[in-house]
Design goal:
- The chain is α+β, with helices and mostly antiparallel strands and 354 residues long.
- The protein folds into 2 domains: 75 residues; 249 residues, Bira Bifunctional Protein, Domain 2 (BirA Bifunctional Protein, domain 2), CATH 3.30.930.10.
- Helix content is 37%, strand content 19%.
- The strands form 2 sheets. A 7-stranded mixed sheet has the order 1-5-6-10-9-8-7, sandwiched between helices.
- Strand 7 and strand 8 form a beta hairpin.
- Helix 1 packs parallel to helix 4, helix 3 packs antiparallel against helix 4 and helix 5 crosses helix 10.
- Bound molecules: 3,4-dihydroxyphenylalanine.
- 3,4-dihydroxyphenylalanine (DAH) binds next to strand 9 and strand 10.
Length: 354
């Protein structure tokens, strides 16, 4: 028996597994329930009392040796799982991996947010699944009014009462994917007290056939400023400042009268085409101007629908499509590129991710 112990001790001292499987085989051979150590202890029960005295200590030390060796090897292989005991140089630098880049729509959204933040606007968000009240009725779209057809809606269900979380208003009317971020204006005004000065970025959905110029989902940034004595001049100056920051000094703007149910008066704002500088190109359809947003003075009905005194407060609102602003900035002509995740397209917008 002593011979066996001596022989196994040499074997254990020399053991270096090449992989995890060999280490496991070692464990089973020596420490397993039917392993050699169990076998030696069984043999030990049968030896004479004198032999027990001489062998006992050595046998226990042998068992400890096997266990310690196994533990050490196991810890090493946890650090370097597949190559326990191999001679690889752990001080070599790891393999590099490629960082992604920000999506152009995120870049432009963040730029829009930064510009308005510098003017004191805060950022607010609302749900993409919206009810009729917030998406239409509170915004002064009468029932059955053709203005509702301006925005082809994806309906989800007929009138559903969802449990509002604390502080959130109840779902009212049919449930749909929001068709514009103007719904967030309503949520904001219902939940607080004037003054409001916020921009509200988010994704919106419309039931449109997908083409280079239209998509069933896209992104908007809504703006709202409500306080005492807010005027159309404030609206024009704010948006003019935004355009100069976004497209650079020298960019021209023009306002054209328009119609939106939730603003009165309403306007659309064009900027001089940053691509051809007004000379005429495909982007501006050879007009020299590109429409980038809708805006106007918040209709008093909308203020009242949200519990705000329209005698005391006035406000302006605007809504712009992020895709349109991005197209103009980076000369992108096909909206589908934004959602196809083609890395050859996305890689062109390499930025430091912080
Ligand atoms: N919600 C409008 C749309 O999606 C855009 C818009 C126009 C927003 C005028 C406004 C506004 O806040 O005042 O077409």
């Amino acid at each position: 028996m002593q011979n066996q112990i001596n022989q196994y001790t040499i074997e254990i001292n020399n053991f270096q597994p090449a992989n995890a499987a060999e280490l496991e085989a070692f464990r089973i051979r020596f420490l397993g329930t039917k392993g050699l150590i169990k076998d030696l202890f069984d043999q030990f029960k049968a030896v004479s009392p004198e032999e027990k005295r001489t062998l006992g200590k050595g046998l226990n030390e042998f068992k400890q040796l096997a266990e310690a060796k196994y533990q050490t090897l196991k810890e090493q292989s946890a650090i370097q799982p597949e190559k326990a005991g191999s001679k690889d140089d752990l001080t070599l630098p790891g393999e590099g991996f490629q960082l992604g880049s920000r999506h152009p729509l995120s870049l432009v959204r963040n730029e829009i947010i930064d510009i308005f933040k510098r003017l004191g606007f805060v950022v607010a968000e609302g749900p993409e699944i919206e009810d009729d009240w917030h998406n239409f009725s509170a915004l002064n779209f009468p029932e059955e009014h053709p203005a509702r057809d301006m925005q082809d809606t994806f309906f989800i269900s007929k009138s559903l009462t969802l449990n509002p979380s604390p502080g959130e208003s109840k779902m009212k009317g049919d449930i749909a994917l929001r068709t514009h971020t103007s719904s967030v204006q309503v949520r904001m005004m219902e939940a607080g007290k004037p003054p409001f000065r916020a921009i509200m970025p988010g994704r919106v959905y419309r039931n449109e056939a997908i083409s280079a110029r239209a998509h069933c989902f896209f992104h908007q940034v809504e703006g709202l400023y409500v306080d005492e004595n807010v005027s159309f001049a404030d609206l024009k100056q704010t948006l003019y400042h935004f355009v100069l920051e976004m497209y650079g000094e020298g960019t021209k703007v023009r306002f054209r009268p328009s119609y939106f149910p939730f603003t009165e008066p309403s306007a659309e704002m064009d900027v001089s085409c940053s691509i051809c500088k007004g000379a005429g190109c495909q982007m501006c359809k050879y007009s020299g101007w590109v429409e980038i947003l809708g805006c106007g003075m918040v209709d008093p009905n909308v203020l009242e629908n949200c519990g705000i005194d329209s005698e005391k407060y006035t406000g302006f609102a605007f809504g712009m499509g992020i895709e349109r602003i991005t197209n103009l900035k980076y000369q992108i002509r096909d909206l589908r590129l934004f959602s196809e995740n083609d890395v050859r397209f996305l890689k062109q917008f390499q930025t430091e991710i912080s």
